Amino acid sequence: MASDDESREEPREEFVEQDGVGVTDQLQRLWTPHRLAYIKGENKPDGDGESGCPFCRLAGLDDESALIVARGESVYAVLNLYPYNPGHLMVVPYRHVADYTDLTAEETAEVADFTKHAMRVIRSVSGAHGFNIGLNQGVAAGAGIAAHLHQHVVPRWGGDSNFMPVVGHTKVLPQLLGETRTLLADAW
């Protein structure tokens, strides 16, 4: 039987040399080039109108293509393309409105109902321990798309803030968005 010292795996000494990438080291890289579009703000609407608004555009697509989980009378639930955690979705009014105070009573009620239902669904399929729920009102408050109101529903688990976002500035998601959409839509 091997001792603990003998059974430990030796650190990998394999390095891939590539001209121009810097000093060779033992770190492995987790590349997420799809995030660069978000960082650069590509395809982000540049005005306050409906023209070019991704939320207005998504509402006109089929659910699978748009990653829409469910539709209501005045709002829909859609997965976030750049999720903080698996299952991160947004409740979005169909009407192009920027401020929460501009919602009608019916829209406000349906945003609340969809948010509650989303929490139940996410808990049932993933066992979320808690949620961050919020509206970022305006660019100064962190709204990525300030011209069209959207409420985030972010599932959380004890200890889900591991070393990757803190040290690697990277979020590891265990499931493709299309698979997550199907799972949530089927449970909705």
UniProtKB/TrEMBL annotation:
Residue positions binding substrate: 80, 152
Active-site residues, as the UniProt record annotates them: 150
Cited InterPro entries: AP-4-A_phosphorylase (IPR052908), FHIT (IPR039383), HIT-like (IPR011146), HIT-like_sf (IPR036265)
Motif (Histidine triad motif): 148-152
Gene Ontology MF: a single term: hydrolase activity
Record key words, sorted: Hydrolase, Nucleotide-binding
Spans annotated as Disordered: 1-20
Record CDD domains: FHIT
Protein biosynthesis in keyword set: no
Annotated HIT domain residues: 54-163
PANTHER family per the UniProt record, alphabetical: AP-4-A PHOSPHORYLASE (PTHR42997:SF1), HIT FAMILY HYDROLASE (PTHR42997)
Protein name: HIT family hydrolase, diadenosine tetraphosphate hydrolase
Source species: Saccharomonospora azurea NA-128
Higher taxonomy: Bacteria, Bacillati, Actinomycetota, Actinomycetes, Pseudonocardiales
